[in-house]
Specification:
The protein has two domains: 193 residues, Rossmann fold, CATH 3.40.50; 173 residues, CDP-glycerol glycerophosphotransferase, C-terminal domain (Rossmann fold), CATH 3.40.50.12580. It has a seven-stranded parallel sheet, sandwiched between helices. Strands 11-10-9-12-13-15 form a six-stranded parallel sheet, sandwiched between helices. The chain is an alpha/beta fold. Helix content is 41%, strand content 14%.
Length: 393
């Protein structure tokens, strides 16, 4: 354990030195690029299936003269999504570094997602004076009090919001200039219309910082409540029998950070699929599913936007909001778009009732989603693009 800590400490110091050398050596070489009006877009440098991808596609289709580049790893399973639109740059390549330094507008779904090393540049955000403007597209509606997204830490020149209550909360509490926060809707929301749903339940728990800490310290996470609870649901005989009888499929697709532990989940149900990141697109799963089961994941907002029912399985709220995120404005019981339960027995009954009722959304939750998303159209990308164009050079 001691050797692992020493090794990680040495690695972190190497990254700091390596990135600083690259940045300052390449800064003068970026002069040629700085003369041009260049934009770069990314998600995390390894994916293209979220708001970054949808905005990039919109710009390339509607304003092809705009010099905008998408940053993504050559090995990414999502690279095929952006290659047809051209201007694709390899993540962490020499060109990526030069464009990162020189771009007048830097856009991503994660803080510093457009950078060659997100961890390093997030830590250095207050020390390095990066030229250009930064746009934070977000990858999910902010529902908690996340201090990493405060203005003094994130340094975004434009903060895009996907919902009206979220917009009000961030403007009032996150320390941004009022004109830096905009409610436009998310870029990917343009594609959440004209749906063709299947008889399919999508189960999407979010991640836990505690799992990462345990794995880092070398402890097994196989016997944690998180793993036990979700495996219990995936093997609930009454639920599996009801789903099979009704011809309903169940897909388990946990958060991106939980995907590395996917081998710890299994089910005996023939109609249950343990879905992995490389072979399944999260937006497609959301669009085609009739019901979502999650805990605290922000994906429930996408589901509510599509006017489909959600159910929240929250067996560890005290631990989650103590260790993960501080609770914000959103209360699942009074503002959520479906039932909230901590009991597997209650959850089973709720899901079986939805199966029997054809996954019909209840009136109470319809009204909540309508109030949460007053903007409900296919003009989200256009609004975002127009806001970026307003940024001072």
């Amino acid at each position: 354990m001691i050797f692992k800590r020493i090794s990680n400490s040495i690695r972190r110091k190497y990254i700091i030195v390596d990135e600083l050398i690259k940045y300052y050596l390449l800064y003068p070489l970026a002069t040629h690029y700085r003369r041009r009006d260049i934009w770069i877009i990314a998600e995390r440098g390894t994916d293209a299936r979220d708001n970054g991808y949808h905005l990039f596609r919109y710009i390339r289709e509607t304003d092809p003269s705009r010099e905008v580049y998408y940053i993504i790893s050559r090995k990414s399973a999502d690279r095929k999504n952006v290659e047809p639109y051209g201007n694709v740059v390899d993540y962490r390549s020499l060109k990526h570094y030069l464009l990162f330094i020189a771009a007048k507008v830097k856009i991503s779904t994660h803080i510093m997602g457009f950078s060659p090393h997100r961890g390093f540049y997030t830590r250095m955000i207050n020390r390095l004076r990066l030229p250009g403007k930064t746009v934070f597209l977000q990858h999910g509606v902010t529902q908690s009090d996340i201090k990493q997204l405060y203005a003094k830490r994130a340094k975004a020149d434009l903060f895009i919001c996907g919902a009206k209550p979220e917009y009000d909360y961030i403007r009032a509490n996150y320390g941004y200039r009022k004109d830096a926060v905009r409610y436009t809707g998310f870029a990917r929301y343009d594609q959440l219309h004209d749906l063709h749903t299947k008889k399919q339940i999508l189960i999407m728990p979010t991640w836990r910082k505690s799992l990462a800490r345990m794995a880092y310290s070398g402890k097994s996470i196989a016997d944690t409540e998180f793993i036990r609870r979700w495996n219990g649901l995936l093997n609930d005989k009454a639920l599996l029998d009801a789903a099979a009888q009704a011809g309903v499929d169940i897909l388990f697709y946990p958060h991106y950070e939980v995907q590395k532990y996917l081998g710890l989940f299994a089910s005996d149900g023939e109609n249950v699929t343990i879905a992995d990141f490389a072979h399944y697109d999260v937006q497609q799963l959301l669009k085609e599913s009739a019901l979502l089961v999650t805990d605290y994941s922000s994906v429930h907002f996408d589901f509510a936007y599509m006017k489909k029912p959600c159910v929240y399985y929250q067996f560890d709220p005290d631990e989650f909001f103590m260790q993960q995120y501080k609770k914000g404005y959103f209360d699942h019981k009074t503002m959520g778009f479906g039932e909230v339960t901590a009991s597997e027995e209650d959850l089973r009954g709720i899901l079986i009732d939805y199966i029997k009722n054809g996954f019909a959304e209840k009136e109470e939750y319809k009204q909540r989603s309508a109030a949460f998303f007053p903007l409900h159209d296919k003009n989200n990308c256009r609004r975002i693009y127009e806001e970026i164009l307003k940024l001072d050079p």
